[in-house]
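Input chain follows. Return structure tokens only.
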Amino acid sequence: MDNRLPSCALILQRTPYDYASGQQPTTYTTIMTPATTSSGLTALVTGGSVGIGLELAKQFAAHGHDLVLTARHRDTLEAVAGTIEGKYGVKVTVIPDDLSDPNAPQRLYDAVMVENIDIHFLVNNAGFGLGGEFADTDGARELDMIQVNITAL
């Protein structure tokens, strides 16, 4: 076992999702207290460009951990990477991909291997939900949701 890995307490709170209006949560509070300060460790965060994934990525960066961020939109990922690198002085690698594609997890793995990055922490945060009656939702979107929320993880 790698004795450099810190034991952590993580508390994450957010405002509740408003199902009636579909309004996303607006407040995220994270507290991550490592038992030891570490560096040279890398966290891979899926869905790391917005919301909870972004906040967790910031917490890892604030504790000196490099990041691999993946999400669908390259421009958003690159903007987030620049902000995090500038503020925390860590290396951020972006790998844009859509985890609803069944081949995306293998592409992500291959990209990490090509970059020769050792992953020490994995945050499987990517995911989405659908609203409405099951009989009224689009079957293809249901399958995409299963792929992202279950299979890709």
